[in-house]
Amino acid sequence: MAERLRGRAAVAQRRRRLQAEPLCRDCKSRDIITAATVPDHIVPLTQGGSDDDNNIRCLCADCHQARTAEQFGYRRRIEVNADGWPCA
Ligand SMILES: [Zn+2]
Known about the structure:
The protein is 35% helix and 9% strand. The protein is an alpha+beta fold. The radius of gyration is 13 Å and the shape is globular. The protein starts with 6 loop residues before the first helix and ends in a 16-residue tail after the last helix. The mean pLDDT is 87.
């Protein structure tokens, strides 16, 4: 199993993914153009998802929050910092 990227490598990977998919996928599916700020795991790592590009979709903060609530079965307000990462 691949080791999760940390620090500088994780930042570079996140930037690369956002460049590859600069618009929020969920908004786009509703004909809304919103800049993506969060590369999201389609299948969460905690549920056996991989950290490969094909398990990543780029979302805006609002959609990411909605998706996360959906995936974990409850709604939870997640505070994110300026980079769009959860503070916790
Ligand atoms: Zn969105």
